Amino acid sequence: MKIIAELGINHRGSSQVAEQLIDVATSAGAWGVKFQYRGQAGFYQAVSEIGDEILSKEIDDSYIPPEDILALAQYIKNKGLAAGISFFKFEDAGNFGDQLNTFDFFKVPSAELMNSDLVSSMASLGKPLILSTGGHTEEDIFRAIDSTRHVPDICYLHCISNYPVLLGNQQMKFIEALKQKTDAEIGYSSHDQDWEVCLVAAGNGATVFERHLTMDKNGKGIDDSSSSDPAEFIRMCRLLNAYSTVQGSGKREINQGERINMQNLGSSLYASRAIEPGETLSATNVVLKAPRKGLTWAELQKRQLTNIRRPVAEGVAISELHFTEPKPPLEPHLVAFCDEKQLSIPIRLHDAAVLQSRFPIKNNELHLSYEEVAKFGASMDDGLAGLDLSRHYSIHIPDYIDSKTLIDPLAADADIQSRSLKVIETCVDLALELEQHSGASVPIVGSFSRILPAGKAATYDRLHASLLKAGRDRGAPIYPQWLPRIAWYFGGAEVLDMFCGEDDIDIITSIGMELCLDLSHLILSANYSKADWAVWCARLMPLSRHIHIADAVGIDGEGIEFGEGDLGDPTQYINGPGRKVLEIWQGHLSEGDGFDKAIRQLGEKNG
Fold it and tell me: Name one Pfam family in it (predicted).
């Protein structure tokens, strides 16, 4: 979508106000900013009627000379936006001399749609041209389209020239008629009282949007009531820029948040007593409970699963594994490949024995829940009893300190801060304990996403100091993890603003903060910003001390199979120094089938 902030006369003739409006358009995510220009003297010949007097005075009071408009146009371009201008007569374009080429696009306003001399003169400038169609009959509009078909890079805007347009007067279906008449881009010039009708325009096929921007929509200017203030404009840009993503591909695909919710909110079969191999499942030995950690009756019937082939302890969720023989360990040559490349897989306390048996590799990353951290805090020996202490470990701090609270060592709430620091302290204690057993360092990774009211720079400075004190000063460095822009917290999606944007890279680089680089998260966050993830990667890699490797696609397709996303060939990362954790989404399920497939893929290519 191309969203143009029309400044019109809302700058009140002030370059300073114009700059403020340009800054709003930039932060909102607009594509361009446009001026209107009328020569200072003699544009209105007759001013005897009251409407003429009002409009003439507004235009005169809002005049900005060409040299100042050119400076503002450069200001717009320096912000990365397109600068445009509209003229009501071509003679006024001459006031800009040979610097007219500064502008990236031109527009013919609705009132001059049938001014063939102006249209042809503007088209001759060789820049993209926009024609607005307000106040004209269908016949006139279609005649204007026919007469400009030869103009390359032309766009037509549906427009209702009331100020403001009341709800119900938009005639939005006419956009479809315009699209049938031309292959050119079709947009909507909005003077609506309700900016939300721009979303209806998008639904009818508009891809270019022009909306007046003002600092005060209740101001005394004649355009204020048909304009958007900064808050409205930012929201409009956010929704329109997300339009194609909201629409999707037309296919119904399940996202990670849904999978988590289906698991947490759904139910499955659990053993109501110990079940021996050879038994058939029935109401006498299973019960339906939440969460959905295993199979349902419908899934059993669909897969035609009958007799249990492995013993099932009371309270364990019934899974497909219970209808199969135990899976053999990873072959020695693949184990050697993993150890040579220092590849690691995530394990949890509850599946550590199974995964460490199937994957006898040297490196593991221990992903902890807040309850498991508490277990280690209460008795380090009891927690360690479930782990192979000859392995080399890294530790992933839990995202939560309880079922309702994200970890935040800088929280203003003293209780949240204290409990967050306690979780981190226990993870450091565990890291030092594991290092004593294995003789290898134990990196610690954590996700920190809360911004202080003081702003990002202050948050990063304080977080950096806090983690150095809690970790490195005790001999166990803690690396903040690069995050996706959209995180699945508490079963829903949250848009983050820490460790996920180009401005974050600037701050991290300036303070020399070392981090864990998650390539899957990096791809997702760069895609969200419509940036090249490889460029971000090149900037972050010098600060990366620990790496998570997985493929990703779009803005929330995390941890997908290698080759299915935007990562491309992972060889350079596999062959890089240090430990690399294979962060395959739900790779631990079915005794690690996802990890097994990933290791085989990588081993065949890089072994």
Answer: NeuB
Can you give the pTM of this predicted structure? 0.69
Can you tell me whether residue 169 is helix, strand or coil?
Answer: coil
End-to-end CA distance of the chain: 45
Bridge partners, 186 (sequence order): 156
Mean pLDDT per block of 10 residues along the chain (607 residues) reads 92 92 96 91 48 59 90 97 96 94 96 95 96 96 96 96 91 96 97 95 97 88 85 96 88 78 89 95 94 92 91 92 91 96 95 94 97 95 94 97 95 96 97 96 96 96 97 97 90 88 97 97 94 97 96 88 92 93 90 94 79
CA distances from 72 to 20, 84, 89, 129 (A): 11, 11, 21, 20
Q: Which residues contact 460 (CB under 8 A, 6 or more apart)?
A: 504, 507, 508, 511, 513
Alpha helices in 64-210 (DSSP H): 66-78, 116-123, 138-147, 174-181, 197-203
Exposed, middle or buried by CB within 10 Å (0-12, 13-18, 19+), for 607?
A: middle
Q: Rounded distance, CA 461 to CA 484, Å? A: 21
Q: Which residues pair with 366 in a beta bridge?
A: 347, 395
Question: Residue 49's pLDDT is what?
Answer: 41
Identity of the amino acid at 411: A
**What is the C-alpha to C-alpha distance for residues 310 and 287, in angstroms, rounded to an integer?**
18
Query: Using an 8 Å Cβ cutoff, are 315 and 270 in contact?
Result: yes
Domains of the chain from N-terminus onward: 2-247 (3.20.20.70), 256-323 (3.90.1210.10), 332-605 (3.20.20.150)
CA distance 200 to 188: 10
Reduced to 3 states, what is the DSSP secondary structure of residue 289? strand
Strand pairing class (492-495; 486-489): antiparallel
SS3 for 505-555 is HHHHHHHCCCEEEEHHHHHHHHHHCCCCHHHHHHHHHHHEEEEEECEEECC
Identity of residue 580: K
- CB atoms closer than 10 angstroms to residue 58: 17
| Omega before residue 453 within 30° of 0, cis | no
**How far apart, in whole angstroms, are the C-alpha atoms of residue 505 and residue 525?**
12
Alpha-carbon span 579 to 573, nearest angstrom: 10
Return the pLDDT at 298: 94
The predicted pLDDT at position 606 comes to 66
Q: What does DSSP say about strands 444-446 and 208-212: parallel, antiparallel, or unpaired? A: unpaired
Between CA 86 and CA 107 the distance in angstroms is 5
Between CA 300 and CA 318 the distance in angstroms is 10
Its sign, for the CA torsion 386, 392, 395, 396, is negative
C-alpha separations of 336 from 330, 481, 513 in Å: 10, 28, 33
Tell me how crowded residue 540 is: count the other CB atoms within 10 A of its CB. Answer: 19
| Rounded (5°) CA angle 62-65-69 | 95
Q: Rounded CA gap, 525 and 496, in Å?
A: 10
CA separation for the pair 378, 380 (Å, rounded): 7
Alpha helices in 62-136 (DSSP H): 66-78, 116-123
Q: Please name which of 317, 262, 261 lies closest in space to residue 294, comparing C-alpha atoms.
A: 317
Residue 112 and residue 118 in contact, taking contact as beta carbons nearer than 8 Å = yes
